[in-house]
């Protein structure tokens, strides 16, 4: 499986969530199972007879979360002439496409690359490449089999430049100034009524009023925000399952590099085979070079060691890295980072969630499938349904 964040090995996450016939809430977007692709039902609001969001509204739409899904929704709405207010709890752009800097090293410790199958995303990525925010990654990427074999894994891939967060920065640059994210602004709750929503922030401030609200955060966080004001949406969001991932970052002053630039590792998850992915970050386009590596632990291993200290995790994963790469020297830098909500292991496959009567929706990869581009598609489709 070409999971674009690459927190897992290919084929490891193929389980799609199955919805029973009880999921018939007419306010929610659903999936045509027979056609195996989303059918985006434009449900009418019982109050207005139109899609809830009105481009002429005096109030903007609030978007909580400035990752791929939130930025995609913001781009789609602003292109329709609608105002948005975008909030993100992070200190800067990136989210799961962040780039970590430490002691002169740079690591794409979250999402490793982006695949592009959606036509709308293709146009955006072409623009990012033209602007220098992204580049094709044509490195030698393989799959390491359990019996010691090495198989090629050729898929068209793109990376951000000079780090994965370049993709996020490029998307932000396409927004009007007033719509660009406000970072270090964590929304704790949604209050108010349809057409007059407010956000209560972590610092005690209250933002608003907003005509509508889009929640573009991992599903467990979405449940917390939606439960008080949109319990039906929260219930459905709670059916999505997301797994953690421990990321190992290594920098070497000198190292005999492996024959490949990145590798999926089949059969990962056991204590003696914890890593599902290893990438030589320095070999990606637009990088300064150097022997910098990122390795991701498999979901099963990450779940078992979720609350372990980062130093202990780094020490536990290092032998598996050595075994896979053949690098025996001591790293000049070693660090581990825990992604508590790294990837959806049981996405909803709805595309997005929307209650048009409330003017509240949710989007993200967890609404569709375990691909980074699914987050972008989810945000764009939700914005289309809300914006008319």
TrEMBL record:
It comes from the Bacteria. Coiled coil: none annotated. One of its GO terms (molecular function) is oxidoreductase activity. InterPro entries: Amino_oxidase, FAD/NAD-bd_sf. Residues 162-384 form the Amine oxidase domain. It holds the Pfam family NAD_binding_8. This is FAD-dependent oxidoreductase. It comes from Niveispirillum cyanobacteriorum.
